[in-house]
Structure formats: structure tokens, C-alpha cells
Backbone:
């Protein structure tokens, strides 16, 4: 009693997948996606080369995990230590520096913790570890979360375990919203912050310490480990981003006249 | 403020994915629903209960299950289904099929016993009985379609995980709402939500219009 039309529909749906792989899958972060950069790069690369880019924005931790399972052709994240290990372990071919910006500490514009005039990040982290001031953590192994953990570590401060340290376990937007609702501090990448449309009375209160440097890397997933990857197309994409028009697009990407990402050349 | 072409694209993807998953689930619900409802067999009670329990499967779980299967490291990875609309269709199917088949089974179990005796006395075959069940009582089937479709088009989690919310390809309405919310565009998220509900409203009106034509 199974209608022939349904069988036909199923077959066409499957066939449309079997023959095509003229696209590359890029595992990337939410910071590149929420700014709109990923969509733009995908569109422009397709226009220049006819190769479709399917960029999946899942967060650094998930992107790394997905890539290690072979669910992608290119990895584009911001966690240099993990990226280097990724290549060392044979999952990726080579890591290239793609672009950079920085992280900033945002908080209520009246700055109750008075971190605005502090000289370095260690001082700031020490003040924020005080139970009088709330700090929101991503707690999701994202690039931002990993940077936050390294800041506590570098400052020699153990991560607070009292109620003033709040784990959102969610994305940057949700975390910023919580920071606003609870009038607290949090760490965010500048790109997401500039693009974010719901800042309310939060403001950048500390920035420009060299520890807040935020480098993004790009890696082609290894065809030796995963023979199915579109290695040639991936390399074209990487080259386009490093030396081709992609590089220009990244460095000229602005929101409200502010540059979000910087390139190395 | 609202990027109309992108929104129209997302609407198109939502409708395409949810229409196909609903139709697919609908026909399989009728087929298997009829078989299960009209026959006695070993473990029948357990299977029916199990299907009933699957009606509350969280969308994220359905998405994860499909993801594990179609991921490159999974058994069906070679089919390259991940991050395609077909993967979204499959994930939505898993969510709505239990709901639809449970409705069908309940209906047929109620109507079939009396109808069967009546029709067999007139010399009807199994196929005739099923045909009459469907065409005579359009109501229940249209309601099943509506409930299935409503669940499919509004879910977020299943299609997002296996589809990847990729621009132009797998970013449906609910994925777009999530993305705009993640960018802090709360108002846009609300507007898109209103659009989604309006579409559901139109479809619901349409289906109920046909229902009342009985």
C-alpha cells in the first residue's frame, strides 16, 4: 500500500545527495558567524570560484570534536593550543594564522568594580574574583571560555566557586544578556560585542592587554586521516582567505564603521 | 532591518523540510497504523506503548540520534547526509511519526471493529475497508496532518543539529530566529516568530476549511 509517489520522492531525495559534493564543509565558531562574517565569506567565495561553502557555526569545542570525527573539510576556530594539537595529532594538515582581534571585559557602565583604570588583566581578574562582583562564564569549552580559563590561570587566581561566579553554559549572546540582567561582568570577543544589538547599559570596561589577543587559525582537515575530504577545494578556500580576495574582505569587514577582524598582511 | 530575501529563503526551507517530513510520516503512519490497529500480534501492547512514549522525545535528542548515525564516524556517514535538508527531514520525521501514528492507531482502534463487521457483511476486502476509513472520515486525517506539521515546522534542535543552520541551504525559520537572537536582535527574533505562527495559521485555516467540507 506504499504509494509509488512516495517511493519516487525518497529516491530523488537520496540521489540528490549521492552525486553532489561540490561544496566544502567548514567547522567554525559562533563568533565568526554571529558577526555575519562567515555568511559573507561563503557568498563571496562562491561568487569567485563556484565552490559552495557550507559553514557550520558550532563553537570552538564542538568544531574541534566534529572535525576529529571527519565531519568537515576545514576547521576555523580560535584556540591556538587546541589547533596546534589538532595538527600534531594528524587530524589537520597545517595551521595558518587567519585573522585576529581581541577580547574585552564588559560590564555595567557605572563600573562598580572600578576596573576601568587598571593597568593589566591580572589586576582586573583579581578584583573580579571578589564575591562582591558577579562574573558570567561561558562554561562551554568555546574559544572564549578557554581564554577566560587561561586568564584566571595566568593571573594566578583560582576560579571563584561562590555565587558571584555564574556559569551560563550557553553562547555569547545569551551570556551577555545574563550579564545585563544581573548587572555583572563578562569576557567577550570584540567582534561579537560590536555586532551585538542588545547591549543595554553594558560597556567595554577593560581592553588592550596583550593577554586578550584573540587569534583565529585555519586548518585543512587531513585527507590521510579522512580520505573523503575535499582537500583540493579546501586549499583553494584557505589560499583565497590568506592571499586572495578573502583577505581583503576580512580586513574591510565593518559594522557601524568599526573593523571587527584584522589580517596579518 | 529585516533582510527580506534571507527571510523568504528560510521560510522556503522550513516549508520544504516540514512538508516532506509530514507527508512521509503521514503515509507511513496510515500504513503501519492500520496494520498495528487492526491486527493482534505478539508484543502489540508494548510496541503501541513504546510509540506513545516516543511522542515526548526531545527534539535535541532526535537530532543527536540522527547526527550520530549520519556523522562521518557513524554507520551511515558514507551517505554524506549531514548538513543537508534531507537530514533535517529525517530528524523531523523521528519527532512527528510517533505522534501521528499514535493518533491514527487510536482512531482506527475505535472505528474499525464496528466498521469492519458492517463492511465485511457487504463483501468488502481489507483494501476497501482502509480506503473507506480514510476517505469517509477526512477529519481525523487532516487533524493528524496538522498536528504533525505544526510540530515539525516549530521544532528547534533536531533540524538545527543535523542541518547546521547553513545559509541558503539548511537555515530554516527556527534556526534563523535562534541566530538573530544570538546576535542580540531580539526584536527580529520576535518578528520572525510571528511570521512563523502566521504561516501555521494560514495552513491550519486551509486544512480546517477542507475538513468542514465533509
Residues:
Amino acid at each position: 500500500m506504499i504509494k509509488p509517489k512516495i517511493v519516487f520522492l525518497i529516491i530523488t531525495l537520496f540521489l540528490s545527495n549521492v552525486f553532489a559534493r561540490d561544496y566544502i564543509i567548514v567547522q567554525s565558531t559562533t563568533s565568526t558567524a554571529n558577526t555575519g562574517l562567515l555568511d559573507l565569506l561563503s557568498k563571496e567565495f562562491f561568487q569567485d570560484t563556484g565552490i559552495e561553502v557550507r559553514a557550520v557555526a558550532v563553537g570552538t569545542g564542538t568544531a574541534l570534536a566534529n572535525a576529529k570525527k571527519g565531519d568537515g573539510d576545514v576547521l576555523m576556530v580560535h584556540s591556538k593550543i587546541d589547533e596546534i594539537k589538532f595538527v600534531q595529532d594528524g587530524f589537520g594538515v597545517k595551521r595558518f594564522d587567519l585573522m585576529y582581534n581581541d577580547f574585552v571585559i564588559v560590564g555595567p557602565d557605572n563600573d562598580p568594580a572600578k576596573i576601568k583604570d587598571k593597568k593589566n588583566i591580572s589586576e582586573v581578574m583579581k578584583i573580579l574574583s571578589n564575591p562582591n562582583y558577579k562574573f558570567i562564564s561561558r562554561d562551554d569549552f568555546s574559544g572564549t571560555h578557554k581564554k577566560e580559563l587561561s586568564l584566571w590561570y595566568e593571573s594566578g587566581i583560582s576560579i571563584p566557586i561562590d555565587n558571584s561566579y555564574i556559569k551560563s553554559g550557553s553562547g555569547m549572546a545569551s551570556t551577555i544578556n545574563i550579564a545585563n540582567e544581573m548587572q555583572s561582568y563578562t569576557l567577550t570577543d570584540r567582534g561579537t560585542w560590536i555586532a551585538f544589538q542588545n547591549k543595554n547599559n553594558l560597556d567595554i570596561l577593560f581592553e588592550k592587554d596583550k593577554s586578550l589577543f584573540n587569534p583565529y587559525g585555519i586548518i585543512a582537515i587531513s585527507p590521510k586521516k579522512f580520505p573523503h575530504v575535499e582537500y583540493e577545494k579546501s586549499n583553494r578556500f584557505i589560499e583565497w582567505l590568506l592571499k586572495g580576495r578573502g583577505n581583503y574582505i576580512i580586513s574591510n569587514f565593518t559594522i557601524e564603521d568599526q573593523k571587527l577582524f584584522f589580517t596579518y598582511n | 532591518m529585516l533582510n527580506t530575501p534571507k527571510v523568504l529563503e528560510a521560510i522556503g526551507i522550513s516549508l520544504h523540510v516540514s512538508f516532506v517530513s509530514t507527508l512521509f510520516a503521514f503515509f507511513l503512519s496510515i500504513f503501519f497504523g492500520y496494520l498495528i490497529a487492526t491486527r493482534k500480534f505478539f508484543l502489540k501492547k508494548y510496541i503501541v506503548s513504546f510509540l506513545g512514549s516516543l511522542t515526548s522525545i526531545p527534539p535535541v535528542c532526535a537530532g543527536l540520534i540522527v547526527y550520530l548515525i549520519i556523522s562521518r564516524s557513524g554507520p551511515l556517514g558514507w551517505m554524506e547526509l549531514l548538513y543537508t535538508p534531507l537530514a533535517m527531514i529525517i530528524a523531523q520525521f523521528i519527532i512527528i511519526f510517533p505522534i501521528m501514528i499514535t493518533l491514527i492507531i487510536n482512531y482506527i482502534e475505535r472505528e474499525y471493529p464496528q466498521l469492519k463487521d458492517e463492511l465485511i457483511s457487504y463483501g468488502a476486502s481489507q483494501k476497501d475497508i482502509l480506503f473507506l476509513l480514510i476517505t469517509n472520515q477526512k477529519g481525523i486525517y487532516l487533524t493528524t496532518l496538522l498536528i504533525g506539521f505544526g510540530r515539525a515546522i516549530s521544532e528547534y534542535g533536531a533540524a538545527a543539529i543535523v542541518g547546521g543552520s547553513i545559509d541558503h541551504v539548511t537555515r530554516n525559520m527556527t534556526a534563523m530566529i535562534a541566530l538573530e537572537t544570538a546576535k542580540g536582535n531580539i526584536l527580529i527574533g520576535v518578528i520572525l516568530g510571528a511570521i512563523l505562527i502566521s504561516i501555521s495559521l494560514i495552513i491550519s485555516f486551509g486544512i480546517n476549511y477542507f475538513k468542514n467540507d465533509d
